[in-house]
Amino acid sequence: MDARKANDRIAEKAEQLRFVSRVPMLCECSEPGCRTVVMVALNEYREIRRTEDSVLTAPGHDAEGAVLESQTPTYDVRRVSRSRGGANGGRRSA
Ligand SMILES: [Zn+2]
Questions:
Q1: In angstroms, what CA-CA distances link 36 with 24, 32, 81, 94?
Q2: How far is the CA of 70 from the centre of ligand 1 (A)?
Q3: Half-sphere exposure of 22 (CA within 13 A, CB side)
Q4: In angstroms, what is the span from residue 56 Cα to ligand 1's centroid?
Q5: pTM for this prediction
Q6: CA quadruple 55, 57, 59, 65: dihedral sign
Q7: Residue 72 CB: number of other CB atoms within 10 A?
Q8: I need a labelling partner for 74 at 20 to 30 A (CA). Which of 18, 37, 57, 63 fits?
Q9: Domain segments of the chain as ranges
Q10: What is the pLDDT of residues 5-50, one digit of tens each?
C-alpha cells in the first residue's frame, strides 16, 4: 500500500526531527485517488501501526475488507479482518 509506506516514512522523518505535535499522514482508504491528509500524533501513529492489519483513514473513508475499529475527530482506524497487508483490490475472498 503506497499510502502506508509513505506514512511510515513520514513517521520516521518526524521522529528524527523530534516532532511532538501532530504529523500529516495520508489517508489509507481504498479509494485510489484519495489525497486526504489526516493529522495524527506520532505516538498515536505508532500505536496504530503496532497492529499489522490496521488502516488509517480520514473520517468516513472506507477501506476494502476493513471494519471500523476506533474513531477520533480527525481520523478513523479500521482493521482488515482477513490476511495481512496489501490485499487491496487484487484478491477477493471467496
Ligand atoms: Zn481516503
A1: 10, 11, 24, 31
A2: 16
A3: 9
A4: 9
A5: 0.79
A6: negative
A7: 13
A8: 18
A9: 2-80
A10: 999 999 999 999 998 889 999 999 999 999 999 999 999 999 999 9
Predicted confidence (pLDDT) at residue 86 exceeds the cutoff of 60: no
Q: Record the cell numbers describing residue 37, joined without a space.
A: 491528509
Report whether 73 contacts 80 (CB < 8 A): no
Q: How far is CA 87 from CA 15, 30, 41, 81, 90, in A?
A: 28, 10, 26, 11, 6
Q: CA dihedral in degrees (58, 61, 63, 64; nearest 10)?
A: -170
| 16: amino acid identity, one letter | Q
Task: Quote the ligand 1 centre to 46 CA distance (angstroms).
Answer: 20
What is the Å distance from ligand 1's center to 28 Cα?
6
Ligand 1 ion local residues (Cβ < 5 A): 27, 29, 34, 36, 58, 61
